[in-house]
Amino acid sequence: MDKGKDPSYLCLQPSSLDSAPKLLLTGLPGVGKTTVVMKVMEGLGERALGFYTEEVREKGRRVGFRLVTTWGEEGWLARVGFSSPYRVSRYRVDLAFLDLVVARLREEWAPGRVLVVDEIGRMELFSPGFREWIESVALDPAVPFLATIALKSRDPLVLRLKATLPLWEVTQKNRDHLPRKVLAIFGEGTGG
Hints:
192 residues, alpha/beta, Rossmann fold, nine-stranded mixed β-sheet, globular
């Protein structure tokens, strides 16, 4: 394992010089993975293409999760009270919006864009289309790819990605300066 000069980073494999940059971010729930991704998306500007996941709270209680895209759309991923065969904890997962997002990402990605996915998690992986798309783009040497994954995921696809792609752990110690380090890999700016 190559930890580099900063032991708070967990980097399992260096990126190949012959391929586009790729990076997975992991960490404990609530440590700041989504915040890091949002700051990276802001730094990438129009080059970022993808989504992040945000908690939705009502009266101080978490009731679900919404996807927020780089093109300004928002939609439910999971919510208490949804009617769905897919369930994680008390949340029922609605794949309709996620599948629309994946279709748009397939259409809009072009060289110069960086695909950003927050996150490759249990809820998202219920979608066969999302699972297939992630496997194809994450392993495509031409596609710059940044994604978050759960620290303890045992999903076979996530385990394969963890074994193949560079992996950094977001911690309380590194989360504030991590966006700059990620942007150094992908490059800043709005140009494409």
